[in-house]
Design goal:
This protein has a single domain, classed as Beta Barrel (Porin), CATH 2.40.160. 6% of the residues lie in helices and 73% in strands. The chain contains 1 helix and 12 strands, in the order αββββββββββββ. The chain has an 11-stranded mixed barrel. Strand 9 and strand 10 form a beta hairpin.
């Protein structure tokens, strides 16, 4: 982890990158349909330059099946909206995904794999790898059927790759390194540096300082 942090600092420090700040908000809700089958709604909002400058949001709706304590698969529909020239432009996609999660002592690992039929034209494979080492600060016992609150803090490392299946090439890669604080199972807050690289005709990289608030709503009636 220390070597990765030093490497990222060198990349951000020595490469002539355009840098800027963003705020991302993420929300998640789920409803149990059958045993081990959940209906889930996820949404992500992106703000650039301030909380009043929303420029991108995406909403995902789908059904997820928990195969075991480590693996779940799902089929979902996603709508993406982006501000372009002061107008919102939207695209839709269908996707199939599978998540693998594993906890080894205090180390938390997640490998998310998805295939999207983007805008019903292009096929895109997405892989997200999340690694965190959360330190448990405190645990508060739940009462009257409520789950216990777990307060955690620690470093986190994410890498997300977008592979265009039609053109058979990687079109985007994001590496994020930072610190996250969580009040589980309700919310986590993250402050991180991101190296975002996109491949058009050549690779272009941008350094981003990202703060993220993720909120998780428990099963609704």
């Amino acid at each position: 982890m220390k070597r990765i942090f030093i490497l990222l600092c060198l990349i951000l420090g020595l490469t002539p990158l355009k840098t800027y700040g963003e705020y991302w908000a993420e929300f998640e809700m789920k409803k149990a349909l059958l045993e081990k089958v959940n209906f889930e709604v996820k949404s992500r909002l992106r703000f650039s330059g301030g909380l009043n400058e929303l420029y991108h949001y995406r909403t995902e709706v789908g059904a997820v099946v928990e195969l075991n304590e480590f693996t779940k698969v799902g089929l979902y529909f996603e709508n993406k909206q982006k501000m372009v020239a002061d107008k919102w432009e939207g695209t839709n996609c269908l996707g199939l995904g599978g998540d693998l999660t594993y906890n080894l002592y205090a180390l938390s690992l997640m490998d998310r794999n998805r295939v999207d039929y983007d805008n019903f034209e292009d096929w895109v494979y997405r892989n997200l790898l999340k690694i965190s080492y959360p330190y448990v600060l405190a645990v508060k016992t739940g009462h009257y059927g409520h789950p216990p609150l777990i307060y955690r803090i620690g470093p986190c490392l994410d890498e997300e790759i977008y592979f265009d299946i039609n053109e058979t090439k990687v079109v985007e890669n994001r590496v994020t390194l930072g610190v996250q604080f969580g009040v589980l199972p309700y919310a986590t807050f993250k402050v991180a540096g991101m190296l975002e690289s996109k491949n058009t005709d050549t690779w272009h990289s941008i350094g981003v300082i990202v703060t993220t608030l993720e909120m998780f709503f428990l099963e609704i009636d």
